[in-house]
């Protein structure tokens, strides 16, 4: 009990250090952008001596770098990430407006990945070496290798332009309409995750089916269904390891999918802001994603401590 | 007991001839490589514009139709292989090189080198490569070269881990002990005796990296970063033609299919090479 508590604490501390290091990198984006800092922060507004002085004062550019970083980070923690260069609006509310859509698409895509990937992986493991297995594995490689934007475009062409089953763009209003609008983006997102899950589930279940207890259970005359039930339950623990990877990659893929389907989410905001060099918005989104990914990884670590009692006792059982 | 059971399964999978899928993947990989090597030489006029015949569907003259500037989509596809593939090859090779430079000493010597290298790998590994590349290349505006450098740095921790783990595992084998006792120098043992045994893992990993880099770099050029405008790069062609889905859908979907097929084929070939080389190593 104490051991896994310590393990989680160490992981938490490590994650905090990583987030701090990355936040320094994110802060320094203002200085890395080509041209002078004042010009970056002024955007398209004319750079005169007066505006330059105003910007220097507003952003405390004459303070030492460390002070500037600490001020920026302190403000960020308190929920103040400055104003957008492009729109002049408050960055936090801009990000807040875009967040729900991105969360919805990511979760929808992740859900589809689980619903498709895990059963297919089980099916492939049970039919190992047969034609079906090979087809499923080949399909998972294709799903894994396909860039989400190319998949999204193919889906758009087939299901929205040719067959006219789904809308070409937009996010819809109300629950059912949104579901209908977000289905193609979610499928484009979910396929890569599904491919990954097929691989993890299949190899984990194949290993589990080779265990002595499975042979023993069969020898005792348990039905195939019962035996498979036990094996599947045990094989799902390693699959949890993949969950963090899948959520993270789905989150990244959302950026591209939102651009393809013209969805007004965080991803398209990031791309627009990067293209415009709207540094405060880019910093905010980068910081948010960094924290989100760190949190996902911690949660995954904690979840397999909960799922596998053997890990809690330090592998003694 | 489980070991005895596992044997026949292993024997069956050791077919000497590759399956249909692998053959298909090999053909596609070869075609893509040939297009990247000789495409611009064979089709010097692929980028020539002909505004009179813009945006036609597939026909006998243009098999996949033309784009809005009247360029033949199939020819563009062949010429676009080079910008799409060269970057990914550079990323795979570059990160393999760094992976060796850091992973070989870390796995062989252990100690503080190992500790520092692994903490570095942990830190970098938690970064989503594509996101970092979007932010850094977008804000710095460094284009293609910067995109590749960023990718190499973000991919290399994976290679470092793979090389380090493989060397670490080999280090305790009797043949290494024998080589050490015969007073061979460390670089000679690592490069001449250990490396051939870890090569399958390393090479297989490089193929996987190539596939991921191809996808990541084409994603960047899809977003309008990385490759310069006007290049026939697959990601950029796709982005430029996606507004014409109604008039000639092939102009955008063909490069998309090219990316998917190439990435999937290279992954499959990588897996296959890994297995083949691994079997050879084990039967020795």
Word description of this protein:
- The complex is a heterodimer of chains A (317) and B (284).
- With 317 residues, chain A is an all-alpha fold.
- Chain A has two domains: 2-77, no CATH class; 100-309, MetI-like (MetI-like fold, Orthogonal Bundle).
- Helices cover 79% and strands 0% of the residues of chain A.
- Chain A contains 14 helices and no strands.
- Chain A has helices at 2-27, 29-32, 37-42, 49-58, 65-77, 91-126, 131-145, 148-162, 175-209, 212-219, 224-260, 266-276, 279-307, 309-312.
- In chain A, helix 9 crosses helix 11 (224-260).
- Chain A starts with a helix and ends in a 5-residue tail after the last helix.
- The model of chain A has no long low-confidence stretch (mean pLDDT 80).
- Chain B is mostly helical and 284 residues long.
- Chain B has one domain (64-282): MetI-like (MetI-like fold, Orthogonal Bundle).
- In chain B, 76% of the residues lie in helices and 0% in strands.
- In chain B, helix 4 (111-125) crosses helix 6 (143-171).
- Residues 1-15 of chain B have low confidence and may be disordered.
- Classes of the chains: A mainly alpha (317), B mainly alpha (284).
- The interface between A and B is large, with 52 and 50 residues.
Strand-helix topology:
The complex is a heterodimer of chains A (317) and B (284).
Chain A: H1 2-27, H2 29-32, H3 37-42, H4 49-58, H5 65-77, H6 91-126, H7 131-145, H8 148-162, H9 175-209, H10 212-219, H11 224-260, H12 266-276, H13 279-307, H14 309-312
Helix pairs in contact in A: 1-13, 6-7, 6-9, 6-11, 6-13, 7-9, 8-9, 8-11, 9-11, 11-12, 11-13, 12-13
Chain B: H1 2-13, H2 20-42, H3 73-109, H4 111-125, H5 129-140, H6 143-171, H7 174-181, H8 186-222, H9 234-241, H10 250-283
Helix pairs in contact in B: 2-3, 2-10, 3-4, 3-6, 3-8, 4-6, 5-6, 5-8, 6-8, 7-8, 8-9, 8-10, 9-10
